[in-house]
Amino acid sequence: xxxxxxxxxxxxxxxxxxxxxxxxxxxxxxxxxxxxxxxxxxxxxxxxxxxxxxxxxxxxxxxxxxxxxxxxxxxxxxxxxxxxxxxxxxxxxxxxxxxxxxxxxxxxxxxxxxxxxxxxxxxxxxxxxxxxxxxxxxxxxxxxxxxxxxxxxxxxxxxxxxxxxxxxxxxxxxxxxxxxxxxxxxxxxxxxxxxxxxxxxxxxxxxxxxxxxxxxxxxxxxxxxxxxxxxxxxxxxxxxxxxxxxxxxxxxxxxxxxxxxxxxxxxxxxxxxxxxxxxxxxxxxxxxxxxxxx
Length: 294
Fold this sequence. Notes:
Order of helices and strands: HHHHHHHHHHHHH
GO biological process, one term: choline transport
Subcellular location: Cell membrane
Shape: flat
Number of strands: 0
Helix content: over 70%
Number of helices: 13
CATH superfamily: MetI-like
Family: Belongs to the binding-protein-dependent transport system permease family.
Membrane topology: Multi-pass membrane protein
Number of domains: 1
Largest sheet: none
InterPro entries: MetI-like (IPR000515), MetI-like_sf (IPR035906)
Distance between the termini: 99 Å
Radius of gyration: 23 Å
């Protein structure tokens, strides 16, 4: 007698049931995500290349320093010179959309996780499961429920990249020193004031580390999501693989790496507890400015 557990068949029936009874819900989610992602993509792709490059370079100068601003300028001009600027802007839009959705869900969930032991045990187990799943597996439910295109790519990326935002938000709140929390209570803070005026400001470095990790994971997943039509640089990478085009594959891969370095350094700068004083970061401008008479 053969004994067989047909888990796959049960999942298939469950998916069919959900598609039959909740299709309107999936359509609504698809409309919202497509509108949100489409608006960001329209702004970034539609903006002149020089304007977007200037904004990114200015942010690099403000947050990191003159040396990195020079690197950012060279990197973005190289990407533009290779003819991949539109795909890079589209990839940036997909990453920003996915990261914002991750934070909208992940930060409140991390706060709830830090303040409730039962929720913490459930969410921690779920996150462990999510982080052990191969990245390609996330594409399957996205395609089943939302078809092909930008929306399933974004949603698969959100599921894949959300765990760091949840974990590091919870960790940051839990690691706020007890003396600071007690001082807040002693000054009459109720729960909401304690959260927004004491715990979250002190947990900000950890939360920003979560933002950084979430954005890096989103970028890696967006490239994989090109297999289901997400677009951007991932689509060019996929074309290079399919055609065995070494030049195209190298140029698109290099563009992904350069974009990742820029996003990583900029988001890291927001998580520092001690940011360099602004005059120090712009000290190189003094040599070009007239010295006021005393």
